[in-house]
Design brief:
alpha+beta; 3 helices; globular
């Protein structure tokens, strides 16, 4: 399963991605996904940034802070530069592969 799909369909994953900057994930026992931040040891990070959530959660987290992609000013400028060179624009995306 792609991370972009998880983020769009799973409110718990979407909330975690507000804080996780280098996401890694894997399907685990049952119908759950483990997600972590590679900066803190990835999926073996000792629990600091590791979360295990159901693929289809029953409840969403409350009190999620407002958030915008980091350095949007830089990212938006880069998209304009890419278009000027004839390259397709890139947006902020969590898509980075599929679960095994």
């Amino acid at each position: 399963m792609k991370l972009m799909t998880l983020a769009a369909t799973n409110c718990q994953i979407a909330a975690a991605l507000r804080f996780i900057r280098v996401p890694v994930w894997q399907r685990v026992a049952g119908d759950s996904v483990q997600i972590a931040d590679l900066r803190y040891g990835g999926l073996d990070g000792g629990g600091f940034a590791d979360l295990t959530v159901p693929v289809q959660p029953e409840r969403c987290p409350r009190f999620i802070p407002d958030w915008e992609p980091p350095r949007r000013d830089v990212l938006d400028g880069m998209a304009g530069d890419r278009r000027a060179r004839g390259a397709p624009p890139t947006g902020f995306s969590h898509a980075s592969g599929e679960l095994p």
